[in-house]
Each structure stands twice: as C-alpha cells, then as structure tokens.
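Let us practice reading a record.
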Amino acid sequence: MPDNHYENSRLADVYDLDSPWSIDRDFYLSLAGDTKIKILDLGCGTGLLCNAYANQNHDVTGIDPSIAMLNVARTKPHGKDIEWIQSSAQTFHSDKLFDLIIMTGHAFQVLLNDDDILATFASMRKHLDSGGLIVFESRNPAINWAAQWNYEMVLETPECVVHESRRFIAMENDRMTFELLYQFPDETLISESELRFLSRNDIEQRLTACGLYADKIFGDWDGTSFNEKRSPEMIFLARANDL
C-alpha cells in the first residue's frame, strides 16, 4: 500500500521541515569529491541531496516512486539541472552508467521482501560504471529502536503550524510498524509505515547474490567501523565483484 508520508502532496510540502539537511547528508555529499561524476540517487525524495550534488556541478539523476516528492524536488534551486524520473528502485532502467549510486534516508528498509531487495541490488549493479561505488544504510537491528522511536515536534510553515508525532506500534520478527500523525489547522493526516530490519550478514548475502560485495561498513556517520552490538547504523560501501 502507498505510504501517505510520501504520496500525499501536503505532506511532501512539509517533508523538508521534519527531515532537513543533516549529518548523514554531509557524509553522502562528501563521497562525490571535486571531480565531476555521474550520480544516481535512488529514492531521492524532495531532492535535497540531488540539489547539493548539482550545486557542485555533478551530473545527477534522481528517481523516486512518488510524484508528490518529485514535484517538490523540481522546485529546488538546481531542479532544472537534474534529471528527475518517477520510478521504483526495483524497476529503474537507464542507458546511463553511474560512478556513484546512493540510497539514503534508510530507504533500504522500505524494501520489505527479498524479491524487492534483490531487484534493487540488481538494478544498482546494472547501472554501476567500472570502478563505481554503491552506498546505502540500514539501522542496526541490535539496537532497541522501539524505546527511542516516538517523538513529537512542531513544524512552522509560511501558512500554518503543523504538529507532528511518531508512534511505535509493534516489532514482529524483523518488521517494525509505526504511524506518523500530522495535525494541520483544518485536518489531521495519518501515515502508517512498515520497515524491515535485516542483519549485516543478511544484507551481505543479498549483495553477494547480485554480484556485489561490501568494501567497507561504517557504524556511524563519522566513519567509525561497524560494531555489531553498539553501532546505530550499518553504512554499506559496496562495489561490483568483477571490477
């Protein structure tokens, strides 16, 4: 089922307020370097990172299944310099090959079954240029995410104030369900979501099945090595096996 958090145009308009520029985007931006390269952002959302890459004169393609998110992305300062494509990561096809392919914002965890994961990794491999790099992250399932999941915040838009809250519902096996509640002055919108929490070994096995391997795995955005018991993140820097 479509996730209202991404599909609803009113929620897409306030997305950058509850997900502004952050340390993870600093990390991804630093991967591009100074020399112009071709970058593919799978699940680009509202295009914050794509815009930052384009600002550094990189050749950027942003894809997302949500037309509402892409409509916001096109309004960014460098929106006209970026190739925007409405597509899922699983079904994306281009004649281009990319030096850097990214999937940010824990979008990997939205892939709820193995078929979608394998199709996404296969698409990444297919579009990766020689010597290219694939980078994505997933939350470490060893961390008690349920205990720290809920929050409340206030979003101030030019038109109104929006009260947002996130509520943990359940963790069953490797699946978490939760809801986001957005209270506008004239309506309340609810988004129900589900995420999958795979282990490092589970993810590496699926990379291997698609001709990829994890060259490095960081445990946080400062570049520290992954610690299975303590690291909040699993940040995979993957390459093709035959390069």
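A brief commentary: The domain at 4-139+198-240 is CATH 3.40.50.150 (Rossmann fold).
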